[in-house]
Amino acid sequence: MSLLKTVGLGMTYSGAPQPALTSVNFEANEGEFIAVVGPSGAGKSTFLRCLNQLITPTEGQLFFEGEETTHLKGEPLRHLRTRIGFIFQDYNLQGRLSVLQNVLTGLLGQRPALQTTLGIWSKKDVEKAHWLLRDLGLSDQSQKRADALSGGQQQRVSIARALIQSPRLILADEPVASLDPPTAHAVLKDLKRVAKEEGITVLINLHHIDLALEYADRILGLRDGVKVWDQPTSETSESSFTEIYGRNLKADDLAKE
Amino acid sequence: MRKHLPLLTFLGLFIWASLGTGVSLPKFVEGLGDMGRFVKEMFPADFSEVSAVWPDFVLTLRMAWVSTLVGALLAYPFALLAAGTTTTWKSINGLFRLLLNGVRTVPDLLLASLAVALFGANPSAGAVALTLFSMGIIGKLLFETLESIDQGPLEAMTALGAPWIARLRYGALPLALPQFLTYCLYVFEINIRVAAIVGLVGAGGIGVWMNINFDLGQYQKVAALLVTLFLVVTVIDAVSTRIRKALAQA
Ligand SMILES: Nc1ncnc2c1ncn2[C@@H]1O[C@H](COP(=O)(O)OP(=O)(O)O)[C@@H](O)[C@H]1O
Ligand SMILES: [Mg+2]
Asked: What ipTM is given for this predicted complex?
């Protein structure tokens, strides 16, 4: 079943001479793990940020669960965002708060503001947070300050923060770009595992093609803000990547690891 | 030439500024002479009445403390609404920045005189003046802190649909709180001195006694009050600096 759809999605930043994204038609089904690849500046981040409207697209339409969400503002937009997790390259945790509290912040959009502002969380929510941390191998870190953790651990905390939202969709913008290769693989494996267990759709920006090939069910290739192709991973070939990178980057990319 | 530009600018501004004040070296030396005579008349300091006016010392401290707290409480919402990171509504930002700047434009003695005119010559006038004074400084410092905090956590809060108040509480507050407490202590240190000064225009506290003794030509008593104030301020500064250092490491 279709979860997310874009029709003619376009984005031109104010003052920019050219659009960062042009007429992207795209559809994601429930439970798919989809990688978005393309060289730096191809529009991957712009695409992802348009989907939860961290950036307001200037063209086209957005649909979520079959309903148009293009022009949502205020409360309805906030409500939409509670069902979409977002994972950032630099984790964007609140370093001064504990790991457990960081996970709980994932619920800020779904619990009464008065209660959360006073720092009151239900026993059930706290248990869920602990459960997620245990599932991601972080149970003995829960009381530490988030900024005391390693990069890989911090990114797992941010995954737990997204999961506690009980999202239908997770958007991940270069989630492993700041991690060393073994850690990157471990974090991606975890992300894919939990997403499959919960039936969550994942859209993930990756500039390492080998990572995309290893983990994604489907790959979307972008270049200069345009969708060049959109194929199941098994159907991609070396020429697909040459097409978007303009050179045989796949071999180089694999050699780096 | 380019390398020396900051220094030359500084010197230029210094000369320009000092010409405006009409201070020259000979005049300054002459002034020192007057000062010397004045200081001589202060000796030996006469501490006989210090214990009698001690309650007014305590009153000055209380004025400084309560004004800092109330000023800080008022400053907080102003700063949150003035900073573009915490409030994304541009016209609200502009309005509250203007208000914060406005408060700081009024000199503290003028604030005190206005408060005395409104509330009469008593400590509450001093407290009101000091509260506004504190709010101006803390608001400005906190606003600048909020403008420069890491945007990452706030962006994450927006992305997961957190309401405004929750964004502030979890996105901005943990980053700004240690700084905020530091500013409060710093302003408290300033406020003790200012609380003594506003007494000069009758707004309560130890400054009132300084003014009275000064007018009566009792310079030795003025000296005793100054020395006592100096000791009090030194002790409080030392304690406060310690706490601020600890906060900086938090
Ligand atoms: N905030 C912005 N303002 C103006 N231009 C931007 C902004 N963010 C990105 N761009 C431009 O949009 C294009 C796409 O950028 P981005 O989506 O970040 O690509 P990617 O994530 O694939 O590297 C680039 O040309 C970039 O310079
Ligand atoms: Mg990017």
From this structure: 0.90
- State pLDDT tens for residues A111-160: 999 999 999 999 999 999 999 999 999 999 999 999 999 999 999 999 99
Task: Find chain A residues with C-beta within 8 A of B156's C-beta.
Answer: 86, 88, 92-93, 105, 158, 161
- Indicate the SS3 state at residue A68: strand
Least confident of B93-102, B147-156, B200-209: B200-209
Give A214 to chain B, closest Cα distance, Å: 28
Helix axes B108-119, B173-198, angle to 10 degrees: 70
Residues in chain B: 250
Question: Per-residue DSSP letters for B88-145?
Answer: --HHHHHHHHHHHHHHHHS-HHHHHHHHHHHH-SSHHHHHHHHHHHHHHHHHHHHHHH
Above 60 in pLDDT, residue A253? Answer: no
A233 at B interface, C-beta within 8 A:
no
pTM: 0.81
Residues B157, A52: C-beta atoms closer than 8 Å: no
What confidence score (pLDDT) does residue A15 get?
92
Q: From residue A106, give the alpha-carbon distance in Å to each of A73, A122, A126, A195.
A: 20, 14, 12, 16
Residues 157-216 of B with CB under 8 A from A: 157-163, 165-167, 169-171, 174-175
Mean pLDDT of A241-257: 63
Q: Pocket around ligand 1: residues whose beta carbon is below 6 Å from it?
A: A 13, 16, 20, 38, 40-46
How far apart are alpha carbons A230 and B69 in whole angstroms? 60
Distance CA(A78)–CA(A52), nearest Å, equals 10
How many residues are given for chain A? Answer: 257
Q: Beta-carbon neighbour count of residue B240 at 10 Å?
A: 17
**Which residue type occupies B133?**
F
The answer to whether the CB atoms of B159 and A82 lie below 8 A apart is no
What's the CA-to-centroid distance between A180 and ligand 2, angstroms? 18
- pLDDT tens-digit profile of B12-53? 888 888 777 777 777 788 888 888 887 888 888 888 888 888
State residue A200's pLDDT score. Answer: 96
